[in-house]
Amino acid sequence: MYKKILAAVNEHINSEVAARYALRLAKQLEAELFFCFVAEESMPQHTRCTAEDAVNRLYTEALDLNIRAERISILGDPVAEIGKIVRHEKIGLVFAATRREDIERRFYSGTVARSLSLKLPCSVALVRVVHMGKIHPSKILVPLKARVNKVKERAYFTAKMAEAFGGKIIVFHATKPITRFFHGEIHLTPVEWEKRLPKDISDFNAYIRKSDIELEGLLLPGHTSKGITIEAAAKRHDLIIMGASERPLFTFVLKGSPVEAVLRETPCDLIILNPRHEDK
Description:
- By secondary structure, the protein is of the alpha/beta class.
- The protein is 43% helix and 22% strand.
- The radius of gyration is 19 Å and the shape is globular.
- About 5% of the residues have low confidence.
């Protein structure tokens, strides 16, 4: 599905960490990998050098891992130029890091990260980096709502990320409490758990099981975003993979979205995937 992957790199260290997720996925898929830095005209020379040094480090690391890689450093508008490269090279997936200022802005509107996610014709994985050290996600939390768009691609991306790191997948679904007196986690047998799941989540699990990956299911009552962050913190998960919000604009403006809430509060690295490949 992802034969060509692009990692958008800039002068910030979090973009280099995010690019290493792309690097490990490209290694797992035997995909071609592009490291791209787009400098705006007003960017100081020392800032450009910092970003170009990061590109060179990543490129060298990719070659050491026998990954087919290219490095691109150009001037222009990041969103426009990356869009041109994506179309010309037929890129299937782009990795980009969110920045600190993105998190502080509601709906992270007007940010480069959100613009890439909305405007690129390919799938986009936005990475919120919390831990700057070596990435080693052995426990990957995957929150899913009742309706899951692009189920096959979401499952494929999640499975390949888990395979790349030898990780375990924990599928999380927040539900309404069974009774008003009920508090805490629902403890069910695997068979009982599967029977309670919406069809899209069951389909997601079925795709994951086609790979040799450890899969665990979890149902919790309560608020979606709060439940996700509490679960991730309490169980010391290393990475959260979520889908981009599809809420209608009116609802989004009034209430925000669970994705935005987790983006602000996540205790571990977070990948927000906006899938564009049609299920076949």
